[in-house]
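lol forgot to send this yesterday, sorry. struct tokens for the thing we talked abt
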């Protein structure tokens, strides 16, 4: 690597795994999965999602790790190093643009989480009916002062950690937040499973009903498998650039996939048994966590205490993902020189907040469709989810096997792991043929070229 300061690195192997897992385990696993599963068949959707994550998500994740450690550069420098003077560098720019745009609306949801934690702690979420919880959520997201202040608070929390650097900031905080996230979720699951009729919710999540699984739901599961691992935006390329040659890449990638699936499962087991126990619907959509769950927890002894625990776990997942999205931009600018990290992190973070103001006001002052029939929030979400993420993932799945020889790929994978030739060949052909085909199907469906 010619343009990165080698002092930028992870302090430990487990620190890297926890930070990368934190990047992967975000709103996709905790906010999006429950309502997508709830509206797309429950157990059948979850099973297909698990299969796609293992067969397609894991190969691309491992490919990003190999690419990042091989090039040992940032999201832009990686493609310049491997394929100098070519247009492949656009892959890195897509990743940076996607991360920037994601944070403009991701931080809005992070602000909602902070507001709900504050209201739960102060008792403002207690004693309401389910319709009143829905009305409360609507009033919160329409309040410009509250939501902008909360969005800024979320961004500042992210900036403070990333500004401290990879080891002292991202790795140290992720190494605390990720274990706590699992402890909180396990506690919530234990409580949820003690409720009457909780097994109805467990069966909904874990017992496949393939009659309710539509072709459209299969494509949703495929998209969820890719995008819940933060693939296609060069985040994992950047994170793996800080690795030593002794890191076991196949094992690290597998650990992150397992942790991501575990949190997704725990989120489902914390939510669906509680929802079914009180006879509520699992297909409430995006408002499930903010308008339905408070009503569920409020009916339990010490329920708001458990709801605060859920919100804190939710906040940890959102923050660790936000760390990675700002880090990829900072790394591309500083190129491993941490002397300018603090200045650039604050500059980028505050710019994200300013650009994200219209998204924050999309449920109040700017609630009219303004961009192709969508609000700023929905338009940003659409561009990222339907265009930038699948396009970035497709380009990455093509770039790795085309621009790195089999020998180089195998040697990089084998370094630190001793991976066998058979495992390598299975991974290689999955990445080269099956992964791009699957991404093309998702992409064409998302942009409406075809539907089932």
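and heres what i got for the seq, position by position
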């Amino acid at each position: 690597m010619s343009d990165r300061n080698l002092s930028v690195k992870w302090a430990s192997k487990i620190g890297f795994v926890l930070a990368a897992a934190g990047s992967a385990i975000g709103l996709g696993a905790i906010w999006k999965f429950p309502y997508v599963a709830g509206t797309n068949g429950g157990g059948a959707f979850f099973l297909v999602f698990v299969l796609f994550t293992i067969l397609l998500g894991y190969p691309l994740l491992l490919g990003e790790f190999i690419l990042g450690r091989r090039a040992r550069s940032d999201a832009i420098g990686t493609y310049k190093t491997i394929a100098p003077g070519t247009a492949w560098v656009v892959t890195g720019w897509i990743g940076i643009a996607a991360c920037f745009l994601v944070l403009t609306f991701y931080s809005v949801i992070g602000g909602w989480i902070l507001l709900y934690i504050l209201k739960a702690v102060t008792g403002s979420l207690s004693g309401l009916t389910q319709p009143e919880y829905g009305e409360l959520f609507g009033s919160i997201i329409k309040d410009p002062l509250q939501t902008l202040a909360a969005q800024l608070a979320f961004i500042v929390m992210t900036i403070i950690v990333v500004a401290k650097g990879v080891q002292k900031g991202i790795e140290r905080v992720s190494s605390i937040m990720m274990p706590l996230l699992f402890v909180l979720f396990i506690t919530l699951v234990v409580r949820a499973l003690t409720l009457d009729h909780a097994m109805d919710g467990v069966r909904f999540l874990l017992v496949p009903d393939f009659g309710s699984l539509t072709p459209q739901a299969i494509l949703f599961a495929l998209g969820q498998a890719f995008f819940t691992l933060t693939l296609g935006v060069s985040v994992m390329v950047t994170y793996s650039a800080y690795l030593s040659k002794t890191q076991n890449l196949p094992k690290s990638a597998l650990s992150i996939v397992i942790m991501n699936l575990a949190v997704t499962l725990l989120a489902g087991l914390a939510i669906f048994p509680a929802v079914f126990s009180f006879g509520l619907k699992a297909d409430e959509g995006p408002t499930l966590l903010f308008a339905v769950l408070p009503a569920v927890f409020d009916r339990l002894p010490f329920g708001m205490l458990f709801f605060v625990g859920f919100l804190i776990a939710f906040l940890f997942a959102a923050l660790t993902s936000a760390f990675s999205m700002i880090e990829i931009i900072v790394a591309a600018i500083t190129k491993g020189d941490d002397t300018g990290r603090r200045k650039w992190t604050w500059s980028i973070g505050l710019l994200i907040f300013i650009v994200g103001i219209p998204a924050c006001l999309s449920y109040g002052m700017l609630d009219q469709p303004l961009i192709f029939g969508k609000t700023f929030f929905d338009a940003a979400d659409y561009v990222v989810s339907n265009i930038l993420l699948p396009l970035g993932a497709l380009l990455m799945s093509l770039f790795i096997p085309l621009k790195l020889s089999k020998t180089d790929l195998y040697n990089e994978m084998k370094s630190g792991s001793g991976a066998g030739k058979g495992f390598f060949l299975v991974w290689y052909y999955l990445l080269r043929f099956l992964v791009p085909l699957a991404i093309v199907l998702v992409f064409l469906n998302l942009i409406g070229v075809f539907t089932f």
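Confidence is low (pLDDT under 50) at residues 1-6. anyway ping me if u want another try
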